[in-house]
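sorry for the late reply, my laptop died twice this morning and i had to redo everyting from scratch. anyway the thing you sent over, i finally got around to it. pasting the sequence first so we're on the same page, its 136 residues, then the predicted structure underneath. double check i copied it right bc i was rushing
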Amino acid sequence: MLLHKTSATPQSAYPLSRSGAAKAQSGEAFANELDNQSSVSQLSQSLRQKDLSTSNLNQSFLSQVQQTLMFNRLGVNEDKVKEIKAKMDELLSRLENGEISKEDFDKQMEMLESMMAKELKSADETEKQSNKLEHY
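ok and here's the structure:
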């Protein structure tokens, strides 16, 4: 077996440490790089938040359109349903504020729920009657 002898590189050929000025420059460069990256990330975060808020607005709009289409197909008076829902919300807030008793709340809520059911039921009956007429 033949071994090849290489010459060893003296340690003086490799710098052991950087000079103080070189270290300071590299530290500043590193700090500047971090600042640039953080500003980009802040920008990207704000854009992401904007995308999320736009997405939420789109979902809200689409759900309102879907509800309106459903009410129109069923023949439900959407204004009447919105009015009943508003009264329910007002009643609930009055209960939370302590303006009415639990018993009064239950009575009034039951009345509003029956009104809502009647409104939806009348639309369902109207749809059934129109389907029967189409089949004759």
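Residues 77-131 form one domain.
thats about all i looked at so far, will dig more tmrw
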